[in-house]
Amino acid sequence: MRMNDVKTNDARTNDAKANDPRTTPLQHRLATRDDLPALTVLMELAIGELQKPYLNPAQIASSRSIMGLDTQLIDDGTYFIVEQDGQLAGCGGWSRRATLYGSDASPGRDAALLDPAKDPARVRAMYTHPAFTRRGVGRLILELCESAARAENFIHAELMATMAGVPLYRACGYLTVADVSDASGGTPVPLMRMRKRL
Ligand SMILES: CC(C)(COP(=O)(O)OP(=O)(O)OC[C@H]1O[C@@H](n2cnc3c(N)ncnc32)[C@H](O)[C@@H]1OP(=O)(O)O)[C@@H](O)C(=O)NCCC(=O)NCCS
User: Fold this and answer.
1) pLDDT on residue 105
2) 196, CA 20 to 30 Å: which among 13, 52, 116, 154?
3) Alpha-carbon gap, residue 2 to 21, rounded angstroms
């Protein structure tokens, strides 16, 4: 074998590693308003595809009115983006404000600031692109949210989980507070209020 052949094979091995989801590192940053178009596409895909094992079509349609992004999170600097190989893999955030869940379009939002000594921080709007599921994107975002909330002296984190989100939150230590049903989009959608000590 000639030396050039060896180098070519090494280069191929490195290329293969770079494209391997198990070895390419996940990168994260805070979202900005410039990310909104890409985030909207990702959320639409995640809501439509990843809820199929848990909800029927009428429930998924109804869930659209209670899911999506609250742009307050971007403006507050509490909304994360995870990328892999420069591609948007997932997003999610936390909040020091009272609203527990919902998008810009949801009724009854409350921007009041929480008291870290007695109120739980909120975990909000977690979405992974269907092509990037089960690679630890959701887990990474939760860790980022929890450590940021801890740094602001929050003792607990709370969230309203979709049925698609429950396995992730359970795996990350969240416990059920209450089973909930939200019919604001027409068909009732099952949800679960969950909490974790940080
Ligand atoms: C919920 C969601 C964000 C999870 O994202 P993800 O990046 O695939 O999650 P992770 O890869 O970090 O999963 C971490 C762990 O959670 C659990 N988990 C996550 N998704 C799961 C699933 N579909 N089934 C079973 N367990 C699951 C597993 O224990 C997993 O660890 P493992 O892969 O080593 O077994 C994603 O499914 C999603 O976008 N769903 C649709 C939108 C939605 O409902 N968001 C939640 C709003 S509250």
Assistant:
1) 84
2) 52
3) 32
Point out the ligand 1 atom lying closest to the alpha carbon of residue 89. Answer: 7
Instruction: Report DSSP letters for 79-94, one per residue.
Output: EEEEEETTEEEEEEEE
Go through the domains of the chain in sequence order and give each one's CATH number.
26-101+112-197 (3.40.630.30)
The alpha helices in the chain, defined as continuous H runs, are 3-19, 36-50, 57-63, 72-76, 137-151, 166-171
Q: pTM score, two decimals?
A: 0.90
Q: Which residues are within 8 A (CB) of 198 and not within 5 positions of it... i.e. 6 or more apart?
A: 121, 146, 149, 150, 154, 155, 156, 157
pLDDT digits (tens, 9 = 90+) for 176-189: 999 999 999 999 99
pLDDT one-digit tens code per residue, 50-80: 999 999 999 999 999 899 989 999 999 999 9
Which ligand 1 atom is nearest residue 137's CA? Answer: 7
Centre of ligand 1 from the C-alpha of residue 138, in Å: 6
Task: Read off the tokens for 197.
Answer: 């000590």
Contact 102, 109 (CB under 8 A): yes
Q: Is 125 in the pocket of ligand 1 (CB under 6 A)?
A: no
pLDDT tens sequence across 135-176: 999 999 999 999 999 999 999 999 999 999 999 999 999 999
